[in-house]
């Protein structure tokens, strides 16, 4: 399968497993899972046929491991705007986590912190390199440090998705290290 087809399938999966399952007539279970056969049938019925081999290749080859297949079911690992319980336990984070953004977003972040916006959680990266890649999707990246250890000690709950993305409901500004300037 060529790279362009892989990207199209991945974006299609994100749209329907994270944000708009009803658009193709599927229903996610409370934990975000849907039967693979149901997804493939719905995609075909809505003009975007995906073979099982293509689906498995996209899931296996995705560099960010955005999707998981288990027991004949598939789900997005995180990033949902629809209500799902990913059934991830609260865990102690490392002392520092990172968030990639762009300079235009710094003013509201300084005032309100990192908000989940339309997603269920704020996404944090375990290292600067990953956060840089995330921020670069929207322009020149700015990497913010998050004092996750102190947040955790102050009572904030963290979860970590299957693909290593750290999740938290909100990061107040007092826990964020901003670049000088």
UniProtKB/TrEMBL annotation:
Described purpose of this protein according to its UniProt entry: Removes the 2'-phosphate from RNA via an intermediate in which the phosphate is ADP-ribosylated by NAD followed by a presumed transesterification to release the RNA and generate ADP-ribose 1''-2''-cyclic phosphate (APPR>P). May function as an ADP-ribosylase.
> Could you tell me the keywords of this UniProt record?
NAD, Transferase
The Swiss-Prot or TrEMBL record describes its family as follows: Belongs to the KptA/TPT1 family.
Catalytic class of the enzyme: transferase
In Gene Ontology terms, what is one molecular function of this protein? tRNA 2'-phosphotransferase activity
Q: Which Gene3D superfamilies match?
A: 3.20.170.30, RNA 2'-phosphotransferase, Tpt1/KptA family, N-terminal domain
Reported EC number(s) for this entry are 2.7.1.-
The UniProt entry, under InterPro entries, shows: Ptrans_KptA/Tpt1 (IPR002745), RNA_2'-PTrans_C (IPR042081), RNA_2'-PTrans_KptA (IPR022928), RNA_2'-PTrans_N (IPR042080)
Listed NCBIfam families: PRK00819.1-4 (NF002014)
One GO biological process term: tRNA splicing, via endonucleolytic cleavage and ligation
Q: Can you name this protein? A: Probable RNA 2'-phosphotransferase
Coiled-coil region list: none
In terms of superkingdom, the source organism counts as Bacteria
């Amino acid at each position: 399968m060529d790279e362009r087809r892989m990207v199209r399938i991945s974006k299609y999966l994100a749209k329907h497993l994270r944000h708009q399952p009803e658009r193709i007539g599927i229903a996610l279970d409370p934990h975000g899972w849907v039967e693979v056969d149901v997804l493939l049938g719905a995609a075909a019925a809505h003009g975007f046929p995906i073979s099982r081999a293509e689906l498995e290749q996209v899931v296996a080859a995705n560099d960010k491991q955005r999707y998981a297949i288990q027991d004949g079911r598939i789900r997005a690992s995180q990033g949902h705007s629809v209500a799902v319980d990913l059934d991830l336990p609260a865990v102690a984070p490392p002392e520092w986590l990172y968030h990639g953004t762009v300079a235009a977003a710094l003013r509201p972040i300084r005032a309100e912190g990192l908000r989940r916006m339309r997603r269920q959680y704020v996404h944090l990266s375990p290292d600067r390199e990953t956060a840089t890649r995330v921020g670069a999707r929207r322009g020149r990246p700015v990497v913010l440090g998050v004092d996750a250890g102190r947040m955790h000690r102050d009572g904030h709950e963290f979860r970590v998705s299957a693909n290593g993305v750290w999740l938290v409901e909100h990061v107040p500004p007092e826990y964020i290290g901003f670049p000088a300037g």
